[in-house]
Amino acid sequence: MAWAMLLFAAMLEIVMGVSLKLSAGWTRLMPSLIAIGAGLGSIYLLARSLSSLPIGTAYAIWTGIGTIGLVAIGMICFQEGAGWMRLFFLGLALTGVIGLRFTGPSI
Predict the structure, then answer these.
(1) Which class for 93: exposed (0-12), middle (13-18), buried (19 or more C-beta within 10 A)?
(2) How many CB atoms lie within 10 A of CB 54?
(3) pTM of the model
(4) What are 87-93's contacts with CB under 8 Å, separation 24+?
(5) Among 60, 102, 64, which residue's Cα sits nearest to residue 72?
(6) Could you read off the pLDDT tens digit of each residue along the chain, which spans 107 residues?
(7) Residues 19, 77 contacting (CB under 8 angstroms)
(8) How far apart are CA 104 and CA 69, in angstroms?
């Protein structure tokens, strides 16, 4: 259950990041409110998952999934660069997240 909470926390972090982009510097109400709610939900679920998971592994996976998700969304939805080097390093980040998950404790 802790891994599921961590995954959902990371998904909420992605929602928060996209909402922050859409909030235009906190000038648009609805995206700003969504960013705040998603951020609070993400932190709450991360904290809950830490009752069972090692802090270093959980935090690295949480931020890693958030980073990978936001970079991918940036490339697809916001026309941010998707050069081969950028994709290569994104793949390395994904490899690191997967490696941390499967070399950590099996909870």
Answers:
(1) middle
(2) 13
(3) 0.91
(4) 93/64, 93/67, 93/68
(5) 64
(6) 999 999 999 999 999 999 999 999 999 999 999 999 999 999 999 999 999 999 999 999 999 999 999 999 999 999 999 999 999 999 999 999 999 988 866 65
(7) no
(8) 22
Nearest to 44 by CA among 26, 64, 62: 62
Those residues with Cβ within 8 angstroms of residue 74's Cβ, 6 or more apart along the chain or in another chain: 80
Q: How far apart are the first and last CA of the chain?
A: 8
**Residue type (1 letter), 96:** G
The one-letter code for the residue type at 30 is M
